Amino acid sequence: MTPSVEEAGLALADPTAYADDDRLHAALAVLRREAPVHRVEAPGYNPFWAVTRHADIMEIERDHRLFLNAPRPLLATAEMDELNRQRAEQGIGLRTLVHIDDPDHRVLRAIGADWFRPRAMRALEPRVKELARRYVDRMLELGGECDFVQQVAVHYPLYVILSLLGLPESDFDRMLKLTQELFGNADPDLQRGDSPVEGLEVLLDFFAYFNELTASRRAHPTDDLASAIANARVDGEPLSDLDTASYYVLIATAGHDTTSSTISGGLRALIEHPDQLDRLRADRDLMPSAVEEMIRWVTPVKEFMRTAAEDCEVGGVPIRAGEALLLSYPSANRDEDVFDDPFRFDVGRDPNKHLAFGFGVHYCLGAALARMEARAFFEELIPRLTSIELAGEPENVATTFVGGPKYLPIRYKLTPA
């Protein structure tokens, strides 16, 4: 049954909608067609404008002076919006690159930028390929059946990004649990609890860990990204504890959770579209475009918010200064005006102007690394894969921010390396 415009708008504030691809995309199609800039007044949330067309989202992303990340960078309940405001005043709220605007954004982004440039990626590539082989070998050790998300996909990019940071392997499981609690705070299987207080505890646990790390790297500098963050200076002064901890949280969480969603969602797409798997097997040169299509198909980051700095228009709709806009990336990445047959999974899709990494000054810092990780994994897996099928019902994470598959039971046959 096709939802009304009002029902479609409310889906954007419902974490369970993101766990149901059919329901979500039915709602987004209605909004793109009938109300591409639509005011949503969902119970328990402050009002916002849902922006669902690719062109309108691009317009907003291009103008970072008119459309600000602060003070409401992510969709949250009205209660959480107020708590986040109070935390910011108390100096205990996150201040990641997602949360801030220029000039602070430009200065802080530069601290980590060199670690994700092409030269750094070339240096990291052997380690990424080694880890890709390790986790495909892990699939072989599991005997031909596993939950791909929980036993493979969440661990591989975690090892990559935490190795780049320079964290000890003994802490990796702790970082995984904290990340899942942070991004899965709306999912009963992943959340620490359903109260704002328990959500704050997760953040404080992150801060406690990373404050210790900062002290260690300042006392004993090393050649890893954690040390670069800890010892960075702005106008001759070291970063505050809040800014260093926020930087670590961004790298350690977004740096693996989104990639694991792409890899697991990409594998599910290949299983459900066996003709595309066969096509990729027959032509490995399609791997770069196949990875881009997986990223578009999954779109791990579901939304960011922007706040209008002054009165303006988006898509012909008047927006007042101070009003918030939700940028729906899954919708942009299925926009019929941009993508030919957008609901077809096509490993050879070209061009592929997806917005899964955002656009403009807030373009994802780790986009090149995410692409390299996904490509390395499937370049290792595909030649060794002789058969694969679902071994149960997949489930997606309930979220309004970052997510993808939560469980992906599969049955397969692999050849040794």
Could you characterize what this model shows?
With about 425 residues, the protein is of the alpha+beta class. A hairpin with a 7-residue loop joins strand 1 and strand 2 (about 50). A five-stranded mixed sheet has the order 1-2-10-7-3, sandwiched between helices. Strands 4-14-11 form a three-stranded antiparallel sheet. The chain has a two-stranded antiparallel ribbon with strand order 5-6. Helix content is about 50%, strand content about 10%. The model has no long low-confidence stretch (mean pLDDT about 95). Helix 10 (about 195-220) crosses helix 12 (about 240-270).
Describe how the helices and strands are arranged:
Blueprint: H1 5-11, H2 21-34, E1 37-40, E2 48-51, H3 54-62, E3 67-68, H4 78-90, H5 104-113, H6 118-141, E4 145-147, H7 148-153, H8 156-165, H9 172-183, H10 196-219, H11 225-230, E5 233-234, E6 237-238, H12 241-272, H13 274-282, H14 287-298, E7 303-308, E8 312-314, E9 317-319, E10 324-328, H15 329-332, H16 367-381, E11 385-390, E12 395-396, E13 405-407, E14 409-414
Parallel strand pairs: 2-10
Antiparallel strand pairs: 1-2, 3-7, 4-14, 5-6, 7-10, 8-9, 11-14, 12-13
Helix pairs in contact: 1-2, 6-8, 6-16, 8-12, 9-10, 10-12, 12-14, 12-16, 14-16
Keywords: Heme, Iron, Metal-binding, Monooxygenase, Oxidoreductase
Protein name: Cytochrome P450
Family: Belongs to the cytochrome P450 family.
